[in-house]
Structure formats: structure tokens, C-alpha cells
What we know:
The complex is a heterotrimer of chains A (about 300), B (about 160) and C (about 800).
Chain A: E1 7-10, H1 14-22, E2 28-30, H2 36-41, E3 49-52, E4 62-64, E5 68-72, H3 77-82, H4 84-89, H5 91-97, H6 103-108, H7 111-117, H8 123-130, E6 134-139, E7 142-147, E8 152-154, E9 157-158, E10 165-172, E11 178-186, E12 193-204, E13 207-216, E14 223-226, H9 228-231, H10 239-253, H11 266-294
Parallel strand pairs in A: 1-3, 2-3
Antiparallel strand pairs in A: 4-5, 5-10, 6-7, 6-10, 8-9, 11-12, 12-13, 13-14
Helix pairs in contact in A: 7-8, 10-11
Chain B: E1 7-14, E2 17-24, H1 29-36, E3 55-58, E4 61-64, E5 76-79, H2 93-101, H3 110-123, H4 129-135, H5 147-162
Parallel strand pairs in B: 1-5
Antiparallel strand pairs in B: 1-2, 3-4, 3-5
Chain C: H1 15-19, E1 37-44, E2 50-56, H2 58-61, E3 66-70, E4 105-106, E5 112-118, H3 121-128, E6 132-137, H4 144-149, E7 162-170, H5 173-179, E8 182-190, E9 202-208, E10 213-218, H6 223-234, E11 241-244, H7 261-273, E12 276-280, H8 283-289, E13 296-304, E14 310-322, H9 330-338, E15 348-356, H10 370-388, H11 392-399, E16 408-413, E17 419-422, H12 427-438, H13 440-452, E18 456-468, E19 474-480, E20 486-490, H14 499-511, E21 518-522, H15 539-566, E22 573-576, E23 579-582, E24 585-591, H16 592-598, H17 608-613, E25 634-640, E26 646-658, E27 665-675, H18 682-702, E28 733-737, H19 760-772, E29 778-779, H20 783-799, E30 812-813
Amino acid sequence: MKPAPFNYVRADSIEQAVEALAGSSDGKVLAGGQSLIPLLSMRLAGPSLLVDINGIAGLDEVRADSDGVHLGALARHADVLANTAAREVQPLVAAALSHVGHATIRNRGTTVGSLVHADASAEMPLILLLLAGSLDVVGPRGRRTIPAESLYIGPLESSLEHDEVAVEAFFPALPPMTGIAFEEVARRQGDYALCGVGAVVEVDGGHVRSARAGFMSVHDVPVVAELTEHLAGMSLSTQEGRVVLEAAVEHAMGALDPAADVHASEAYRAHLARVLAKRVVAAAFSDATHRAATRPAVGSEA
Amino acid sequence: MTSTETRHDVLLTVNGVPHRLNLPARRLLSDCLRHDLKLTGTHVGCEHGVCGACTVLIDGKPTRSCLVLAVALDGQEITTVEGLTNPDGSLGCVQQALLECHGLQCGFCTPGFMTTIEAGLKQQPAPTDDEAREMVAGNLCRCTGYQNIVGAVHRAAELKRDSR
Amino acid sequence: MSTQLFGEKVPRVEDQRFLRGQGRYVDDVLVDTPSATLHAAVLRSPHAHARILDIDVSDVIDMDGVHLVWTHEDLAGAMAEPLPLLIPHPALTHGRTQYTLAKDTVNYVGEAVAFVVADDRYLAEDALGRISVSYEPLPAVVGIESARAAENLVHDDVPGNVAARMEQNVGDAPTAIDAAPHVLELDLSIERSAAMPLEGRGTVARWDHDTSRLQVWTSTQASTGVRAAVAAKLELDLGQVDVICPDTGGGFGVKINHPWPEDLLVTRAAQVTGQAVKFTEDRREHFISAAHERAQEHHIRVGFDDQGRVQGLDVEFWHDNGAYTPYGLIVPIITSTQLLGPYKPANYRVRFDSLYTNTVIVTPYRGAGRPQGCFAMERTIDAIAAHLGLDRTAVRAANLIQPDEFPYDQGLIFQDGRPLIYDSGDYPAMLEKIRKLIGWDEFEQFKAEAEAEGRRVGIGLGCYVEGTGVGPYEGAHVHVETSGKVKVATGLTTQGQGHQTAFAQVVADTLDVPMEDVEVVTGDTRRMSYSVGTFASRAAVMSGSAMHLAALRAKEKALRLAADALEADEADLKMVDGSVQVKGSPSNSIALGTLAVLSNPLRYAFDKASQAATQFSVGDQDKPPVDEDDEPGLEGRDFYSPNRSTFASGMHAAIVETDPETAEIKILRYAIVHDCGRMINPMIVEGQIHGGMAQGIGGALYERMAYDDSGQLLNASFMDFLMPYVTEIPGEIDVDHLETPSPLNPLGIKGAGEAGVIPVSAAIAAAVENAEGFSITSMPISPAELYDLRQRHAEHTSTTSARPPKQDGSGEESA
């Protein structure tokens, strides 16, 4: 299990990285490498060129402002997880990140790298999609922003061009009166989840104003289901609310196509998606209720 | 191929000693440590980043050395198990704790546990039992059943406090 | 006399080097030498079953840095013959072994096809990518069902895919069952798994042209076996081959098989190239080319009375031996005999088929057939209890062999060809201990409380007896140097069991020398060329006993020499802290080192010790300096060869909780009572138990080899073969010991290495069954499978709602 030979460029700038990538048809960017290197060692991937961006200054930024969380391409999962401002601005990022691999992997792996790897059983692509975030990429044609909804186009496939380098991800801030939750079931702690679900619920006076849930590992791309039309106006802490939630989740299931593998059958994955979605949406509702009570929305009269 | 493959200059400081190396890009850090620098204390258990046996500290942070290219670490500081022994040759706190608690059997996974615990105790000098387990949660051991390793995390924390 | 070390928690001496990163594992050998070591890689079959039409290596031959590429055609003489069938057995009528490199056909994904030696492993793997092989795929036989159906054959000349068929009888089980008041039938299965040590296989060899000797380092459980195999295959004299087992990163059984193809290829390549050659197996290779175990399906018919006493037990099982049978029938024979555990069915019949499949070979993995046997027996006992509405511990109590019945002859032939006679034990006392330790009697209340909260909890029990310390023999050599240091060697190897400590404890006690003066070497054929190996929980029993016997020999000689030197009667002498002393006269003593000098009549004095020795007059002036029946040197060498195995035992109990929604299974409590006779080092014994239990949890809840129908192993990585991390093992395990000494060896010890793993699947299956209320008949069990079972039982309940399923019922009454 040793990588095949490849050319290697240690880029000092984004421009240099882009230039190097442009000179090869199958070049790969090396950031954290925690997904890429095993593929190289197993010779499941054999790019002719690796462009190492680890030496590019300023790419490791973790910045939280009122808009949201901005992550440079070299921001390691561990640094994002440890950033209290980021956690404050968008708690769902940290909630999901704590499930990404083990701590040692998070020390080296980058969040942007995980977004680009586009694994439907990984946490961060789902979170970007669920929060309607975006990814900034730079290529020979300049810089562009790819909204999450058009980023994931197939299994392990993103809409980045092969000569583009992802430079920054943006996770929008948690709006007022809004709560989040994330839960997953994995065989062992730190494994890729058999199923994971995240939810964002906005409340208004103890009732749902908007709700969406995102699913990982139950489709070949991450999937987000809009639940607002089912749940708007409901309190999810009532028996009636739970019945409606069940129906809403059932509706969301229609968009999923779970696959079997050595760890779980289709039926079990679908079952987990149902169970987790109900738990997580309800948890996000109570989180929102809690947040609304402790930190009322700006401009509210309280 | 040895003769034709492009090599790259890299400066690695390992256990405080600087090494100037000229390596093929594909050389994994684990192989670089073991074969180029002859530091065979770092062990390779899976080469796909799951077992944790090859864990070393890169600028103080536990990292799988099989998931890093040596050439990508120019100018960085690496600590291996060999660097955990005290300068006078006596066992460091983590090493001593594993000895006292019978936290190892075949010893193959042990270096990865030790580097991980060494860094972990810097962040959490007095871990709870859950934190102690979490600290070593990314390392596989096939011999001990982990009970005594978790005990050793606590013992190492105690030794570190006493030595301060 | 210094403090006795036997029975003490002595810290391990080997840890000093391991903790400093100074262990020497096989891949570390020759890393730091000026002359280059070459690295090998093996091209492996991508097909489970195929005919090899052509192998083209022409793209490799001229590659820079590549020294050699071989296929079967390049091998000659014994190397071109199939690998040895290590353990022949009369019942193994159709034994087959693979070639060093595949000839004509391949029979599993991973079978060695071509071999490359290059400057480094990177280049060697590059070269593998340039070898082109054309295969004609053949239908694959995967799994026991497919093997039994025999619509396709693994080997054309093995009808029905049956390698062996074996039967043993005690009394007349079928008749006894027919006559019994109650009869149950059960089908029970265990899936394929593997030992999976963190260090894979590895071999390094160096040929010395000047002395015509081959030096081999290999990560093995049997260095003398490797030596004999390499000598035979390379057609060398045994005396030309030295094999050293260096520090080893775990074995758990998989490293007992030998020779591996790579052992032979590497040694031969070292001869041919004149350079040191190293093969270090990578993890993917370990999954597809080392060995697996455990896959068995069992059909059981049992007859019993109203108290649950078994009157007849009829077991038929099918063992998946993989593509070849190099290790004979050891695993199924162990299942067939050790299944009985601590019980005494009045009549027993066992039959098994050992079946070929197009999968990796099967050789013993820690427990070696016992986890399957224990699972089958314990599930049967639980089913009896459920059927009769009796407490599960009561049915066990009714069937236990009683303490006054030892030695107890089960009437069968064990894996070593000897009668299965249990030497000692106290199973009723053990059952009482485990009940107390887990809180058996309090559990019903806990369960009721949990259920009131909507939780599902269950309790289960697993009991076993393990034949340990099988023969034929082990030896030890004890050499007291003139420095007083005691150098000890035994031939069997060490994979982390702490032999350097435990054996030193035995020798230090026997000779009454300080522990730090004793240095133990294992698995080096230069130091002890007669040995069998480390397996079957035999190292402490066999080599521990041999150590004691060899040290006694050295002691006898020391006393004899001291008697002369001190002009005292031997009976008045004793050994004290590295010296021999006249009893009651501590100043009248002589150091062991000095006796070592005296033992070897020298003309020349080299050091202080020998100078000091010259003041004593030794021996009779009229006799030769070395007596006719004596030898120079203060040494002792002896062998321990028992009549038969000694039988350890244990009982595990588990309390689990299953998530009503996600079907995740969590172990809440785990308790173990264990009896391995007298313990040399209880710290090491507990470590073995903890580790075994963790492997057992892996086997019960996480680990399996997932083959698809075409014979591809779908989870050949640590990502998908789910060995437990600390997060999957319960935080606290209650361990209690019972010590019934073995009467068969001088130290009263029994083996402890494998025990921890044996009853875990049985105990956890019982606990899950207890939590869920339906039977668990196949292990391991994942949340997905538990979910599936729930669905099936829910359907069953809704279609047969008139009769609710029987709580805790594992079987169907057939009488």
C-alpha cells in the first residue's frame, strides 16, 4: 500500500496552484489529505500531479462574523471545532464536526477539503447544503462562488472543475429564533455514519415558522428536505405535532434512495433516517424554542 | 523509479534534531521516519489512517504519519515515541504510566497511544474518565481491551501533575 | 530467601524497550544497516476462482530498481511442489494445499501469483502493476450453503467440496434423545472473522555465502516450524538455517500457520540475490492472504428431562475451511470436543464436514473453534431453560461436572490425539461466583424498572472449558554465567504475552536469584532448537514448566558444586539471593557466578570471579576435572512433556441494553470469573482476559468477513472490518478468579491466553435474546440485523397473534 509516483508542486500562492493544475488534466489538490492519501496508498487514485497548498499563507483562516462562518481552505477541522466565535455564530457546524472521524484525523483534515471530496456519507457537505452555504473557488477563469445546492452533482462528484482550487467555504449564521440539531448512527464512534440527520428549525411564538432536514449516507448525494409546508404553525412538543412530524418525515423519505452495504440494509438505513429525522427535527425545534426564550430575536419587543 | 523519480528537499525537525532530506514526493512520513531516519519506534498498522499506530506529533498535534507526505512538512517539528523518553534516559510520564498500569502487551500500537496521550494531556491535564476514553478513542489496540490504557491516561496525568 | 515472585504482579521487563520505541519488530530488522535491504511484493489473484491462462512479466524485467520477478514457472524442486499439509489426520481424506506461487488455477482472491523484489516497496508495487495476467474466471463457491450444495467445486478432484468428514460418539445419543421427555432442535451459526493482529505477517532473510547459512527473522508463532519448512523447501540442512522470531505485534493464532509462501520466496530470493530481502505484509494483503476463522453452521438435537439435565446431545456441523487445509482439522476437532464445556451430557454424538470454499484459508484464531462450540452449547442450554421455564443458571447447575468427579473423562479424543480428560476445576463454585458478580438475582427487578421506562435490557451467561497446554513438549535452557547473570531460553515465540517477565519469575524463584539477573530469550532457534510453538494457550504451561525443570537442573548442579567448594553436605545448603549458603551460616556462602566459574575448569583466569575462585580446591585430585557423567558449565536443560492437556475454565455474564428505535446494542455490565490454575503473574493474566474479552466483543457485535457471491471480500480494510475502539468496550469489567491447580504440571498452572474470547458471543447473544424476547441464533449481530429480526418477529407475531412468541425460546420442540 504505497502511492504510485506523481509530480509534486508546493504552491506558494493560489495563482501558482491554479497554474500548476492547469498544466495537468488529472491534478489533485493536497490540503489535509486525510481522504486523498489513503486512496493514493491503495492505488485507487493515481493522479499524475499533486498540488500542495499547505504552504499558502492565510488560507487557514477561521472567521466568524454576523453573516456567518468563513473557512479558508487550510482551516483544519480541529481549529474550526475549537473556534468559539464560529460555534456561537453557527452551532450546527461544530455539532456536525465533532462526528468527523477521530480527533487525530480532525487535526490534519480540512473542512473545505471534506466539502470538495463530496462524500454523501460525510458530515460537512450535508451541513453546507442544509445551511445553504457556498464554496468559493479559483480557477484560470477567475474566482466564482458555487452555492451548495449546485455543488453536489453525483457520488463523490462536485461541480468544481479539475483546474479549480477551493479557497473558502461560507456557512451562513444561525438566524434568530432558530434552532439546530444533528445526530448520527455509526457502527463505531468515528466511523462513517450509517445514517446522519441534521435539522434547522425556525420558530415563532412556540410554533414552527420554517423547517428543513438534511440526510447523509442514505442517498448518493447529501439530500435536504424542506419541511416548512408540513410543519409551519405546529408545535412539535405536542402529540399532534409529533403526528404531523411523522407525516412530514415520511414525505421527506420519498426523496431518499438508501443503498445497502456490508453494514446495513436499505431497510435499516431508511428506518434510521426516519427515526433520526423525527428525533433531530424535534430537537431542533426545542433548541429553537430554547434560544428564542433565552436570546430573543433582534428587534423583537422583549 | 529510484533513479528517475524527482526528489524534493525537505527540512524536518524530529525530536528536536533537524534533518535535511531529499525525498520522492510519494514518500509517506511513516516510511520516512522508519526507513530514512531509522526511527523504527513509529509503527505502521494499516496505512489507511484507521488504526492510529503510526500517530506522531506534528507541531505538537497528533497526526497519522501514514496519511501525510514527508515532503509536505517542510520546516515542521515532529515528535515520535523516541522523543517521549526523558533526556536522562528515564521513562517519561506517559511511558511510566503505561508500564505501571500494564497498558501494553505486544507493544505495536503503543507508540501511537503514547504520542496521542502526550498531546491530549496538554489540552486536558486532569481528564475525567469519559475524557480519558475520548482521548484514545482513535487508536486501535488488539491486545489489551483498553481497560489498562484508560487507567494509564489517568496515571500519566497524575505523574505529570506530581512532576510539575 | 527473597520474596517469592510466582503469583506477584511483577511489572513487565519487555515494556522498557517497547515504551521507548526500541522494540525490534520484523519490519525494523536490518533498517539500520549499511548494506541495502531489498523489498518484496506479491501479485495476488483478483479472482476467487480462475484458471491462469498466461502471465506476462516482460514489462517488469527491465525496470530500474527491480531485482527479480518470479512466477510458478521460475520455481524448481521442492519449491515447485505444493506447500506442506502441516497436520495430517486420517479423517482429512481430501487435504489440499496451495502452491508457493499459483500453478494453473487460483482458488481465492489474494492467492499469490507472482513475486517481485525491488529496491523498495514503492518500486515493488509499481512493478506489480506492470505484470499482466490473463485469467479465465470459474464459478466461485462462497459460504457453507454454496459449499454443501456443491453445484460448483473448489477443487475438481474433491467431490462435494468435502475435505473431511468426522464423527465421535459417547454412548448412544440418538437413542437417548428419542427416549428423553423433551427434545429440542436448533440451528446455530457463527460467521467468518479473523485474528487481525496490528502487525501483519513479515519475513526478512539474509544468506551468508561465506558460511552457507541462512538467517531468517519472521513474525511467527512457531520459529522451529518455519526453520524446518524453509530447510525442506530450500533443500538445505537444518543446521544451515537460523530462524528468529523478533518482537511481534500480536498473533492471536494467525501466525501459527507456516510456511507462508512469502517465507519461502523471501528466503530463496535472499539466496539468489545475495542481498537481504524483506517482505512486510500490508493491511489489505493481511485481509486477503493471511488466514480467517470461525465460520460454522451447527444443527443440534438435544434430549433432556424435566430438570433440564441433558440425556443426549447430537451435534452436526459444517466448517468452512476456505480454499486449502494446511492446518488440518484442528479447528473443527476443537469445536467438536470443547463444545461440551463444563457439562456432562450422558450421551453425545458429533459429526462434522470440513468444506472447501473459494475464500482465504482457515486456521486457528484465538479460541480456535471454542467460541463456536461454546455458542452452540450455551444457546442449547438457554433453549432448554426457556422451554422448561427454568432459570438459566439452574439448568446449568443441573448439568455441571461436580468437583469430586475429577479427573473427568469426556470419552472423546481431543485435538492432540489424546483422551479428553479434564484434570481439575470447580464449576459449581464458579457459577455461584458469576451469579454474584453480575447480580443475577437482582436483575429481574432492574429489568422491570428499565422496561417501565421504555428501555430494553437483558442478561446472559456463557460458560466454557478450555483444553490448554497441549503437547507434545517444550524445553528450556538455563545458563548461569560467571557474572551470576542467568540466561534463559525457550523455543516457543512471544507475541505480547510477557513471557520475558513470567518465565523470569519462574526461574528467579526456582534458583532464588534476583529477577533483574534473569534474561529470557524466546523463539530463537540458535538458542533452543527444539520447540513446538505458541498456540492453544500453552506457553505458560509448557515453557513455564520447562523453565522450572531446567532451573531445577541448574540448581542441583549449583548445590553439588557448592557442596564441594564449601566442604558441606548438600542437604545443609540452600540458595539465597544469587548465592548458595550453608544453612544457619550466612557468611559461609558462594555466589552462583563463582560456581559457574568452578563448573568450567579453566586454565586461565579472565576476571575477578575466576581469580576469586582459584582459592577453592575443586574436585578430587584423583578424578578428571570434569566427571564422566558431567559436563562443564553451570547449566540446566530440560523438557516438559505432559500426558495430556490441562483444562482451564471460566464463565462470563453480560447485561446489555438494546435501543428500541435504532437497534443499537450497548453492553451495560460485563463480569468474568476465570480459573487458570495457579497464576504466575495475575497482572498479565488479567490483561489476557481483558484483551480476549475485547476480541470477543468484536466477534459478537462488530467483526465479520463480508464476502460477496463472487468471492470478493467487501470489507478488507480497518474502515469496514470493525475492530472495537475503546468506545466500543465497556468501561468497567468485573473480573474474579478461582484457582484450582492443575495436577499435571509442577507449577499447577493452566493456560490463559485464549480464554477471554471464548464465551463472549454466547453471553451476548443470550443477553440480547433476553432483552428482545426472541431467539438469537446467529452471531455476530449488528444493529441492522437486530432491526431485521425485530421486523420478522413483528410480522410473525401479527400473523400468529393467537399465540405470542415464547419468551427466551431458542428452539422448536420436535418431540
